[in-house]
Design brief:
Elements: H1 19-39, H2 43-67, H3 72-99, H4 104-129, E1 139-141, H5 145-152, H6 154-161, H7 170-185, E2 189-191, H8 203-219, H9 221-247
Antiparallel strand pairs: 1-2
Amino acid sequence: MAGPTGGIKQFDLHLFHVLPSLLTVAAVCAGLTSIKFGYEGKFEAAVGLVLAASVLDGLDGRLARLMKRETAVGAELDSLADFVNFGVAPVLILYSWGLQDLQSAGWIAVLIYAVCCAVRLARFNVSSRLENDDSSGDYFVGVPSPAGAILVLFPMVVSFAVSDLPLAPPGLVACHICLIGLLMICRVPTYSFKGAKIKRTNAKYALLLAAIVVVSLLTYLWATLTCLTIAYIGCLVWAYRSHRIAKKPKG
């Protein structure tokens, strides 16, 4: 619509309307700050900020859909934020924590993971535009990038939970990084949990379980996160097995 001066009329936006984008920007700031803390040797704070970024990543998209404020710019911003927060920050923290002794070999593992995350996000964006979203239905195709970030940081989380445990050998950590990167771009089905439903009669138990998990994370963060990560790995194995059984020809 043309304004008085012949240009396009501009409409003011309430701050509430840009809240999803503000959450995305906050997530980027958390991811970048986690890299800073990693290089300063503040590893627990660095991992905590990656976790905060993953929470913000889960909120911004859902809030945009709830408010009906989904935009192309917001989608691109979210994808770029995911690459910074889950494709770059976690492995740079890991490199500072336990890979510097490997020098070039450790850096190659970092690059492999980062490239795999970029490919994962690019594939997701293309499939979304083609209305063939790989996150539709009950399964993702490959491990999503936020989950990949948590999985790749698992050696650090375990070391925080069990302080007397010897640090994992750098070579093993490098192999772990490469494995998680490959899991993000492979065609292995993983549960999306988006379509998960519970019976109305069991809602109170679900709320109680959620409350227990939240309290446990606030009280025993690293031990609880270790258990949740192991449980998620179990879900990956179960999803792969269930998907193969479902696809297997009957008779």
